[in-house]
C-alpha cells in the first residue's frame, strides 16, 4: 500500500504505454478515498510505441480522523479519446488501483489545572493533570517529568499512575499531584511544569512530547493571634471588662446591701 504521511499526503507514480501504431490522446480521472484530493495530469498525447510517466499527488486527508492502519483503494482511470487526432466515437477506458494506508499518529497532550488561589508557606495544594490522546491509535504516557523554579517547593509522585493506563484515541485520563511549600518558603510566584512523552511514539522510533505549566503563588504563613500584653508597672491595675450581665447584677445587689449597713451604723 501507499502510506499517507502525517500531513495527509501521498505520491503515486504511474505510466501509460501506447502499443498501437498511431499516436493517441488520453484523459485521466481519479478517485481518492478518505476525502482526499488529487492533483495529476488531465490529458496527454502519447506517441506510437511510446510510454510516459506521470505523478499523482494526493493531499487533504485528515489522518487524525481515521483509525491507524486503515486501508482504502484509490483508482486511476485512463480514457482513450482520440487516435491520430481523430476523436473516438466510443472512448475506451482502462483503470488501475492501489491502496492508501493511514499512518499511526501518536499525539498526547497534557494540561495542568490552574490553582484556585494562593497557598501559604507550610501548606499543601492539589493540582489536576489531564492527558488527552489526540492521536489515531491507543497510547499511554511513557515518561513524566515535574519541575519548578522554587527550591522549597516539593511534589509527590501522584502522576506515576498515568504510565499504567492505556488511553483510547480521542479519550483522556486524569491524576492529581500534591504540591507542598516549606514553612520557610518566601513569598514568591512559582512556575510548575509537567512534561510527558508518548510511549507509542518512543517504541516506534519517534518522539512526541507535550508540556504545560501552572503558576503557583506562595504567601507567608498566617500570623499568630496576638496575646494580651502584660503591664510594665506591677502596681498597674489591669481592668477586666465582663459582658456577663447576670453576675453584674449580683455584684450591684451586694454593693447596695453593704452601703446600707454602713449607713445604719453611722446613724447610731
Structure write-up:
The chain is mainly beta. It has two domains: 100 residues, Immunoglobulins (Immunoglobulin-like); 112 residues, Immunoglobulins (Immunoglobulin-like, Sandwich), CATH 2.60.40.10. It is 10% helix and 46% strand. The protein has two helices and 16 strands. A five-stranded mixed β-sheet has the order 1-8-7-3-5, with no helix packed on it. A four-stranded antiparallel β-sheet has the order 9-11-14-13, with no helix packed on it. It has a four-stranded mixed β-sheet with strand order 10-16-15-12. A hairpin with a 2-residue loop joins strand 7 and strand 8. It is rod-shaped, with a radius of gyration of 42 Å. The C terminus is likely disordered.
Number of helices: 2
Low-confidence stretches: 237-268
Rg measurement, Å? 42 Å
Tally of discrete structural domains: 2
Going by CATH, the architecture of the largest domain would be: Sandwich
CA(first)-CA(last) distance: 131 Å
Number of strands: 16
- Which descriptor suits the 3D outline? rod-shaped
**CATH homologous superfamily of the largest domain?**
Immunoglobulins
Strand order across the largest sheet: 1-8-7-3-5
Q: What's the CATH topology label of the largest domain?
A: Immunoglobulin-like
Please bin the fraction of helical residues.
10-25%
The average pLDDT value, as a whole number, equals: 87
Which range does the strand content fall in?
Answer: over 45%
